[in-house]
Amino acid sequence: MSEFWLISAPGDKENVQALERMNTVTSKSNLSYNTKFAIPDFKVGTLDSLVGLSDELGKLDTFAESLIRRMAQSVVEVMEDSKGKAQEHLLANGVDLTSFVTHFEWDMAKYPAKQPLVSVVDTIAKQLAQIEMDLKSRTAAYNTLKTNLENLEKKFMGNLFTRTLSDIVSKEDFVLDSEYLITLLVIVPKPNYSQWQKTYESLSDMVVPRSTKLITEDKEGGLFTVTLFRKVIEDFKTKAKENKFTVREFYYDEKEIKREREEMARLLSDKKQQYQTSCVALKKGSSTFPDHKVKVTPLGNPDRPAAGQTDRERESEGEGEGPLLRWLKVNFSEAFIAWIHVKALRVFVESVLRYGLPVNFRAVLLQPLKKSSTKRLREVLNSVFRHLDEVAATSILDASVEIPGLQLNNQDYFPYVYFHIDLSLLD
């Protein structure tokens, strides 16, 4: 499952033993896989500032999650025919998202823990806001390009009555620059081909004999040329209509046709350059995006795997990718990393507010192994940590017990600090 529960409990002897009991029960019952979640010691500041940060971090958490989901969707949209490979681009620091979360390490260089918490939160908030601003401008430009291309593509679709003819006809199909003669294009139903060949010369006076030619056809009919004198155009159109032949209004303008073709080629090229990954890069998925086999660190084992590639290294690797896809890859990683740091900050702030000073708590990341076992896992956690809040825990474990003056939603309140990380919507 790509779902994680991030919890914390006080770090005293009693609660360390409770964590060990939790790990034993969840492991034996195959309920979850548990790993340590290291959070640095921050400058706490005042309790009032922590209360304010708690609210701000809640909003930032929601914003960050929304942003990465929008970016993931943008990757899917721009890859179009290669949507199945979109997941290969949704990485964090060069590794898959699950590996990054289970082996999280605070980035001291990007978010120095020695700074006041307010400054750390402000840095992350500004970073995410800038990414969102860039995302809006880049996707707006791409969508405008896509819309313009779709509108132009519509001209090349449909039947012979509606579609553009600039990609079908050529200069050689027409009598041009003649004071007296003109070439018309006539749509003839397929069942009437024979009738057209027998009668077109007699539909009007002054039709040039043997001047018809089939240029193209679709399922319904064919597009024929016919050359005649200009002064009988209206008479010919009337007679053609009476015989179920349709004269297609069209004037051959070489400059306009060239302009239309060039516009289509330019838009196609621009769109392709925005997202397309070279065939070589896609075929070499295992080398461009290597499989990072990272060993999961069990609870109690301090060893961690080495960090993956940096975003800049991955950006230089993606030389065969268009600028929009490359930007999405790099900044999705940045946004996702920032989001998990926000989760860590929320655990720290809520743990201090709930367990008090001095700061002493332990954070653990649980990965439920089965969707069907999450209810049982929740019961185990509530039972193990019920001593943290006897009143609330009693209400949670026995929903039938009503406690006067206490209103609790047993799905929203837990006797321990708890946050949820759901990666399923990014699959």
Kindly describe this structure.
The structure is a single chain. By secondary structure, this protein is an alpha+beta fold. It contains 13 helices and ten strands. The strands form three sheets. Strands 2-9-1-10 form a four-stranded antiparallel sheet, sandwiched between helices. The radius of gyration is 34 Å and the shape is elongated. Mean pLDDT is 83; it is low at 277-309, 311-319 and 399-411.
Task: Please state how the strands of the largest beta sheet are arranged side by side.
Answer: 2-9-1-10
What structural class should be given to the helix and strand makeup? alpha+beta
Unreliable residue runs: 277-309, 311-319, 399-411
Q: Main β-sheet: number of strands, strand sense, barrel status?
A: 4 strands, antiparallel
Overall mean pLDDT stands at: 83
Any idea what the radius of gyration is? 34 Å
* Beta-strand fraction estimate: 5-15%
| Strand/helix succession | EHEHEEHHEHEEHEHHHHHEHHE
How helix-rich are the residues, as a percent range? 40-55%
Number of helices, where a helix is a run of at least 4 consecutive DSSP H or I residues = 13
Distance between the termini: 11 Å
Number of strands: 10
How would you sum up the global shape? elongated
